[in-house]
Design a protein that fits this description.
693 residues, alpha/beta, Aconitase, domain 3, Aconitase, domain 4, 5-stranded parallel β-sheet, 27 strands, globular, EC 4.2.1.36, lysine biosynthesis
């Protein structure tokens, strides 16, 4: 596995200081550590996760696995395959892929869950693969979900998954850890979705970008596990790599109740594992002297119903405000791994059928299509047994099978051009749930149900003829950065080159240059870079990938950008899903270097693994924004500025007009070490692993 050594300062202090919960869990799953080594933020480690899940992308992972020359899965008990994304697609091509995944799983003894059983993340929780205090990954960006039950869940990309299948391990750098303190008592009828939507909108300046999050505070004990799963799930949209809740009495009670469902002989959730968990919970909590990069607080007692959008999770408003704006909707959705558990379906049913009498319903507005799908077949059965499912159908909801469906822009009920939708899913990126010319909002199950009844975005209280909850003073929050110390690792973009030149491997260019093409936006997401509707088509030719690259961001990108250009964008570039095509489509377009103010960590990982080079230069994007502040707005703009990256000297020079023109900027950048050069020369991590095998 990739091994990179970080500089260590004040080693004795690092060894003596305590660990946060994230570091403790990584410590338990790290392999080949030096004797006595205590891991902390900034360390690169080889990790052996307890489990690794893949879904419809299992076949592409299998092809990578076989392409590496591997013939045997290292540990079949570590791997889970679950079909959940494109399950409405009954074409022979898709069914063949599904059969290939099932046959591969059967051949190698891998646990397999067919289409209709449920969404992979929900299965991982229900079946105990993701379990408190373990490290579980998935080749999907919403692996953060597992933090809701006290597991460290984080996404890996397809190439990492193939490496785990072959070797049992992959690499990870322990990120900075932010503590999010939840204070106060959550008002009645305000849900976990309201909490995370508010957090995404109120802390929308990349405060937690590429951080691990640990939730603490007095309010947690009263938060149901379903709320925790929703919050952890959407820490992905907030920009974090994980969102970890503690193991407490509420969680232990959840598992004791779960015993009644799974029975006494379940291999992962049983009396013994729960007893062991109770014993571990007290000792495997964060140490009192653990270090955190920052602390954010929110007073839950000041919350009301929150909705994000349109087309951004970084914009949130109270339902009170949106109700006054009379935002009419065409479609509503209660689906996905975020909010389709039993309590979510019950919250919606309580709006359409508040008395429990199915003859006295608040019907879905005739101008609205309201789609529902349980997160798993178990949840759908429980909803039917409780009469919840029947109430929703009687009110006019349209059922879909247990799977991702419209959340990823697949199957029935997608948003069409000019339409407006509100959803209890996790993402409302432009074009993700259908047409790029539609508008999408996110809200809690109760708000989505109320909006479907009202025909506009509104609160359940309006349906009941009550006053919408309103916080006159606004939501109370704080954000404090930890004091900088010499022990803290420097951000990659801020590291200066060493006195000597960087050694360049044979086959790696000493200079990379091209004209800068400006995509002037922050939070350019993977749906914008490579549309979701192509993601699970595994045989899209390179030429087509090049044509559709960035089409959801800007339909004119294909005409304005050319092979050999260097794309430059704003902050948090590549946020969103873990699809590798976000990197490979840019490569197909002939873009070999992307510069940004900052990158999503998952996109950076995909870039390294697929041989796409990236540079973080926040100063440069700021200069370009000043330069074009008064120019007509263009999503994609050829700048006439040229960048030259002197790799041996770790220096970037930006000039105007040509590579020999007047110098605009000269700046040191992070060194590109031999280990990363080797991956690029080999064409990516897949080629690197193959060469080692």
């Amino acid at each position: 596995m990739l091994r990179t050594h970080t500089r260590r300062l004040h080693v004795s202090a690092r060894l003596l200081r305590g660990q946060n919960l994230t570091e403790k869990i990584v410590q338990q799953h790290a392999v080949d550590l030096p004797h006595g080594k205590t891991v902390h933020t900034g360390d690169y480690v080889s990790i052996r996760p307890a489990h690794c899940m893949s879904h419809d992308n299992s076949w592409p992972v299998a092809l990578k696995f076989m392409g590496l020359g591997a013939t045997k899965v290292h540990n079949p008990r570590q791997i889970v395959n679950a079909l959940d994304h494109d399950i409405q697609n009954k074409s022979e091509k898709n069914l063949t892929k599904y059969r290939n995944i099932e046959n591969f799983a059967k051949k190698h003894g891998i646990d397999f869950y067919p289409a209709g059983r449920g969404i992979g993340h929900q299965i991982m929780v229900e079946e105990g693969y993701a379990f408190p205090l373990n490290l579980t990954v998935a080749s999907d960006s919403h692996s953060n979900t597992y933090g809701g039950i006290g597991a460290l869940g984080t996404p890996v990309v397809r190439t990492d998954a193939a490496a785990i299948w072959a070797t049992g391990q992959t690499w990870w750098q322990i990120p900075p850890v932010a503590r999010v303190e939840l204070k106060g008592k959550l008002p009645e009828n305000i849900a976990g979705k309201d909490i995370i939507v508010a957090l995404c909108g109120l802390f929308n300046k990349d405060e937690v970008l590429n951080h691990a999050i640990e939730f603490t505070g007095e309010a947690i004990e009263s938060l149901p596990v379903d709320y925790r799963l929703t919050i952890a799930n959407m820490t992905t949209e907030w920009g974090a790599l994980s969102g970890l809740f503690p193991v407490d009495k509420t969680l232990l009670d959840f598992y004791k109740q779960r015993l009644n469902v799974v029975g006494p002989n379940h291999p992962r959730i049983n009396a013994d594992t729960i007893k062991q968990l109770e014993q571990r919970a007290s000792t495997e909590a964060a140490d009192s002297d653990a270090r955190y990069a920052k602390t954010l607080t929110i007073d839950l007692s000041t919350l009301t119903h929150y909705v994000s959008g349109p087309n951004s999770v970084k914009v949130s408003n109270t339902v009170n405000d949106l109700a006054r704006d009379n935002v009419k909707i065409n479609k509503a959705y209660l689906v996905s791994c975020t909010n389709a558990r039993l309590s979510d379906l019950r919250a919606a049913a309580n709006v359409v059928c508040p008395t429990g009498d199915i003859t006295k319903l608040n019907k879905v507005n005739p101008d609205v299509e309201f789609y529902i799908a349980a997160a798993s077949s178990e949840i759908e059965k429980n909803a039917k047994d409780a009469g919840i499912w029947q109430q929703l159908l009687a009110a006019g909801c349209r059922p879909l099978p247990s799977g991702c469906g419209p959340c990823i822009g697949l199957g029935a009920g997608l948003l069409e051009a000019g339409e407006v939708g509100i959803s209890a899913t996790n993402r409302n990126f432009k074009g993700r749930m259908g047409s790029k010319d539609a508008l999408a909002y996110l809200g809690s199950p109760a708000v989505v149900a109320a909006s479907a009844i009202l025909g506009r975005i509104g609160a359940p209280e309006e349906v009941f003829g009550q006053k919408i909850p309103f916080s006159a003073g606004g939501v109370k929050t704080t954000c404090e950065d930890a004091a900088a110390t010499s022990e803290a690792p420097a951000p990659a973009a801020a590291k200066s080159a060493s006195a000597g030149a960087v050694e360049i491997l044979e086959g790696f260019p000493e200079e990379i240059s091209g004209e800068l093409v400006l995509c002037d936006a922050d939070n350019v997401n993977t749906d914008g870079i490579y549309p979701g509707k192509y993601t699970y088509q595994d045989d899209v030719p390179k030429e087509t990938m090049a044509q559709v690259c960035m089409e959801n961001y800007d339909s004119e990108f294909g005409q304005k950008a050319h092979a050999g250009d260097i794309v430059i964008s704003g902050f948090n570039f590549g946020t969103g899903s873990s699809r590798e095509q976000a990197a490979t489509s840019l490569l197909a377009k002939g873009i070999n270097l992307v510069v940004a103010g900052s990158f999503s960590n998952t996109f950076s990982r995909n870039s390294i693994n697929n041989a796409l080079l990236t540079l973080e230069i926040p100063t440069l994007i700021e200069k370009l924004r000043v330069r074009y502040a008064d120019a007509p707005k263009e999503l994609t703009k050829r700048t006439g500025w040229f960048l030259k990256w002197d790799v041996p000297n770790a220096k970037v020079i930006v000039t105007e007009g040509s590579l020999d023109g007047p110098v605009i900027l000269e700046q040191q950048v992070s060194e590109l070490g031999k280990n990363l050069q080797e991956i690029i020369v080999k064409g990516g991590l897949e080629g690197w692993v193959k060469s080692k095998l």
